[in-house]
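User: I've been going back and forth on whether these two constructs are worth ordering. Before I decide, could you fold them both?

Assistant: Sure. I'll take them in the order you sent them. The first construct and its structure tokens:
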Amino acid sequence: MSGYIVEVNNLSKTYKSGHQALKNVSLQIKQGEILALLGPNGAGKTTLISIICGLVNPGPGSVQVAGFDVVKAYRQSRQKIGLVPQELVVSMFETVWNSVVFSRGMFGKARNDAFLQTALQSLSLWEKRDSKVMELSGGMKRRLLIAKALAHEPEVLFLDEPTAGVDVELRRDMWRLVEQLRQQGVTIILTTHYIEEAEAIADRIGIISQGELLLVEEKQQLMMRLGQKQLILQLQQPLATVPASLASYALDLSADGLLLTYTYDGGSDHNHVTEMLGAIEQARLKLKDVHTKQRSLEQIFVSLLEDAS
């Protein structure tokens, strides 16, 4: 077995309709990491997750989870996986407690009430354990999906758009839970439309578009490599125009004349920041404040999709 808990090699998938959902995708995921998969609707995110989880038959290529082939060793690979789907798929007439007990039993796990209690408590569901699912709010039902996915103590947890349509408080609770699970060694693969979600909790970012994996990279490295920075200079006195001596630096002057913005490549050794600041001093401009701002992950994501289209 390799050092990866999930290995996808040269995977493609074409549906009967002729739609090619995945095109030669390769992806290796390390144990205990959080990987965020970003992509627009129809990019192939859910197809990829469904194949790894054994819900959709793969096309050419191979997929292994914890060393088990998802086709040849379906039962063994599926036991390693917890899946929180986008849709609410729970029996509305069952109690919260019976739902998680049933989910654990489905995977042949011995009953462990202490573990299930801890899982429900971590999701603020313990007080609702005797409530029927139909009595829960939408946010509580979403928490129950996570509890059911965790009931059999999986090593890999897939979260397919877990916070779509939930409130900010629940989203933050989920982020905290994800971090706790990672500390316990659980590997988490997250698909999301919320760029700030990936930026807040992921170790690596994968960007998928039209069935192709455009890149998979450490979040910090990605932002350093592709993230432009801005140096924002607040002036003591407003300017009518940028002085001619500063024209070569392509500074942007705000409408009120009090801010100069210099955009540069944060990953470059030759960004001319020092020279630009020297030219500011020679031009006798008095600064009130200086701060930097990095290009956001959302801006990087949008530009990569534009380049791919």
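The second construct, handled the same way:
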Amino acid sequence: MSALYGNSQALQSLSNKNDKPLPGTKMKLVTWKYHENPQYTGGTITGELVSVETVETGIKGLVSYRKELDNEKEPGIFQTKEQRIQYMMGYQPVVMP
């Protein structure tokens, strides 16, 4: 399970389906494992934190990527930082009524 968190510039970048984040963008993709809920048959709960990835864009538009925590046992399907940034830019924002 993953959730992407970001500031207003990140929301604007994702809403406009930009290929590159706008200046001032800050996003964090947090991924964790699911486990069966011992209190409820068939239910799941969040468990171990797997990774935290950060994308930030400076005022001049320079994009940086880093993985702050990485408990993954196997390499992901994305091998480069650029591919990972493009993956995160492909997320669609949740719209609340």
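Notes on the second construct follow. The chain has a mean pLDDT of 86. Residues 37 and 43 are 5 Å apart (CA to CA).
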